[in-house]
Amino acid sequence: MTGSDRVFSPRTLGILFLVGGIAAVASFALNVFGDGLGRRTIGASTFSVSAIGHGNLVELLKAEGFQVVVSTNQTRQKAGPGALLVLAEPSPGAQTERALQSMLGAPNTLIVIPKWSGTLAEENTRWIEQADLIEIDVPRAVLAELDSGFSLRRGRVTNWRTSLGASPTLRDPQLLSAGGAGSRLTPMIASPDGILMGSMRRGGQRIWILSDPDLLNNHGIDNGNNAELTLALFTAATPTGGTVVFDETIHGFLDGSTIWRAALRPPFLIPTLILIFAMAALAWNAVSRFGRALPEAPPIPAGHAALIENTAELLVMGGQTRNILRDYFRQTTAQVAAALHVQIWSPEERSHHLDALAQARGLDLRHATLTARLAELLKNPKARGARALAADIHRWKKEMTHGS
Fold it and tell me: Which of 71, 67, 109, 113 lies closest to 88 in space, CA to CA?
């Protein structure tokens, strides 16, 4: 193959291989060493390392031997009887409400009531400048998804009662009321002012409620005995040998389950762009010509149709058209008469009988008409229409014999 026949020059191929190799190495590095590229957030999610995030909680649970899954799609299917589904600080909005309704039917669910919002820090986009208490109507709306009878208050607490072996270290905690719907909760961490952690059964479900996220968020988990208390909480709530499933769809992290969506997101976006570039370059080369030039068509095409056409042209040039057409009409008439069992030897009677059959079948071509046209051609050598007559004779035969 010569240089002009190549789709890509050696230099272009070298560049493609080099860029593709760099993309493959970068993709591998991002998978191994990446920290959630494309999912950085300062909010209350497991992808967040800000003060109000839950990234440290996931790392602590993994270090203590818990099986942890962070889910961004089909969470409900992953939260079976052997799992603890964690809905940590659901964000307000219609999407969260739909997600909560679809997942509250899980057999074992821990709900962490939201409390904080953050302002992005200018010097580091992974941190917050300050944390602000959200309006109390927001956590109350989350509680209303469970039971409209729950109430919530914020204030100082000094006297804790706990069945988990340690007391929390919290400033102005957010507590559930012990009255109303809260009376159905079995307290695990509580004070005379309300319940911080409790559980209840609803049908065949076990629901755990943590009213204040400061026990386990990145800022609060290392205060006092909070880490020890958090581990005791997850040990009590997680089925033996089970998995802790953190749902992140309630924070807007919703991944499609198809390979096509994954191909358009880091770290797979770079190899996808390389593939698109290669295909575009291939199409550009194909615009003018792809491969060798096609050979010219032979002067005389191959095949039976070409042979018949060329023979007809030669006969016309040799002046044998009239004789051939006369013999063709005679043989065709005999074939049709035989096919229709017309046993009449007089040409006039046979023609009349064939036309009567054609009329009975509603056909427009008549044997007498074809006979007259042939006679005109035979009488006048300069008359034209031999090909048209031959075509009509062939059509007449097909129609009279129904294609036989």
Answer: 113
